[in-house]
Structures are given as C-alpha cells and as structure tokens.
Amino acid sequence: MIIPFESFNSLKWYGRTLDNDKIRYFDYSASGFEFCFTGTKVLADFVSDPQSWDDNTKGVIGVFTKEISSPEEYKGSSYWEHFPEAEPVKVFLTDTLNKTILFESSQPKTVVIKVIKISEAAFGYAGLKSLEIEGELHSCTKESNNTKIEFIGDSITCGYGVEGVWEKDTFTTKQERADLSYAFQTAKLLKADFHCCSWSGIGIISNYVDPATVNLPDTHWLMPALWPYTDKSLSLRLGIEPEVWDEAKFSPDIVVIHLGTNDASWVRSIEDRRLSYVSGLRQLIEAVHRRSPKAKICCCLGVMGQELCSSVEEAVTLFAKDFPAVKVKTVKFPVQNEADGIAADWHPSAVTHKKAAELLAQALKNW
C-alpha cells in the first residue's frame, strides 16, 4: 500500500510544514508526522539537500516506535499519546533521496510510528516524498484539544549540541536533539501540542558575533524577518516565494519567546544597543500578539547568560502598558551549572534543559 503525496493528510502532522512539488517538508525542530498501522513493514522516501552541507551539518530525523495492543487503542489525539521513553532511531539524511525502513517485523504488529526532525532548519532539510506500508493504516479518531504552545527561539530552543561535550566537541547535527530541548520537555510536562520556530545563532537586532573581533552587528538573518513565514529559508533554497504562515493552522494558547543570547554578543552593555534590543523585542511581542491575539506571551532568557534579562523585563513592561488586557510575563532561567554538564560550544546539557523546562512549565501552569 503506497501512500502518495495526495494522501499525506491521512497522517497526523506536527509543526510548520511546507508543500512543494508533491513533497511535504518538515524542517523546523521537532516537526514531523505520525501514524498507526498493523502490518510487517514501512518504507519511507525522505528527501534532503546533502550536497549543500558537510558531514557535520546534514539533516537528521528521529524515528520513535511503540507497539500497542490494538488499533482501537490509538486515538491520535495528542503529540504525547504513545510516545515511547526509548531513544529514537536516528536517520542521517546523507542522500538526495533516502529510502528508509521505519519498521520491519516477521509477524504483523500494531505500532505507532512518530518521525520528527531532531536537527534544525538552519542545516539540511527533510521532506517526505512517499510512504509504503505492508499492512493496514489506521486513521486517528479524535482531534486534539490540548493546550497549544509556540516556541520562538535560538540554538537553545533547537537543542543545539546537547549530546556533545564542552571543550571536547564542536557542534554537529548528529549531536543535536530537539527532543531533549527545554521547549520539547516543557510541552511534554504540560502535555501540550507545540510548534518551534528556532534557528541557531539568531537574534532580534543581531545574530551572534565574536565580541573580541567584530564591531558590526550581523543582521542578515534575524528572527523578526524569519518568524512570519512558514519556512523562509527552505523556500529560498527551493527557489519559491516564501509563504506567510497561516496562523489558522495552529493557533497557540501560549507563545514563548526565547531570544537575546546572541544579541548580547553585540549589545555588550552599550546603552544605545541595549535600548535597540528592548525596542526590537517589544515590537516582536506586539507582532506575535497581532498575529495570535488570544495567546498569552512569555519571554524567557538566562540559561547561557543573564546580561539582557532586565532588558527582557523592560520590553515586556513597555508592551503591557500599551496592551494591558494581554497576559504577558517573563521567566528568568538560572545560568547553567557546570555540575550539570556543559554541552558542545558551551550550550546547555540535557540536565540543564530539563531543569529549565520544569521551571518554565510551572510558570505556565500557574498562569
């Protein structure tokens, strides 16, 4: 049984997806799809762009499989339904067309298969071209009514370097684990459906620059110009006009903004730059509100440095004065502790991500 592009909506999709030339791309961190079937084998064709990347930056997806007792047990009502505790099987997208066995068994079994992007959109992309099932596909029977959270962030939100070790490893997408990030873990604690729009090194007024050697901001690719689109980078790579993201496809109840770590490399405690950051964050918060007027907004920062935490509070205060009816708050993360491990390129470890998730989940729950 071949499931072509025209039948992809029979699968359950998560995150921002982009359709082009009969391929459905799922490129942002933790985006992907799931399905339940009874049978012996599943073969998928995934497309990517390995020619554009070296061996350290090709796309990586994770395959999660869980056997269940019967098709009736599957409702398809939540990202977290039948989510296994076991580690994912990693699939490295080293070819333009990657024929991948997602499941194989000598005897028919009923399983739930979840495929998610565990590397980020900044590097090799991922798209589903076709799915072939030896067995019967079971449709989900219930729509989710879970809380919906949108995360807008940088490398920390992507789960950058989580499986690497500081001063030992440099970043590769093979170390990246979106499913171990604070964003993923927060959604899991709250049993919330979620989207991530995240990109390593990105900022609001400047991307990361070397404070010791660079005296100009890096403004070539900032979050305020990226976030409004479904997947602007991918569209440009495919040679198509970027489409504006349709909020109706995922109307968040809460939007979490985690941006400022990279801006700090440019701000450097210089007041006019700091004020520019405050203004930029204030404008982004308003843009988020205007696109998702019913959403509560939470701005958080601090795990890799707290230089701009007071500026985040200032931006939120300025926004709240203009929009007093909107629920908005800040969460200040503790700076990562070396006792909890430090990941590649001085990024937070899985332990630090989990602690941040517990703090953020409690703050959102208290709302």
Question: What can you tell me about this protein's structure?
Answer:
- This protein starts with a strand and ends with a helix.
- The longest helix is centred in the C-terminal third of the chain and has 21 residues, at 271-291.
- Strand 13 (296-301), helix 7 and strand 14 form a beta-alpha-beta unit.
- The strands form two sheets. Strands 1, 2, 3, 4, 5, 6, 7, 8 and 9 form a nine-stranded antiparallel β-sheet that branches. A five-stranded parallel β-sheet has the order 11-10-12-13-14, sandwiched between helices.
- With 367 residues, the chain is an alpha/beta fold.
- The protein has helices at 155-158, 182-190, 223-226, 232-238, 264-267, 271-291, 309-322, 350-366; strands at residues 2-3, 12-14, 17-20, 23-26, 32-47, 60-67, 89-92, 97-117, 127-138, 148-153, 193-198, 254-258, 296-301, 328-332.
- The chain is built from eight helices and 14 strands.
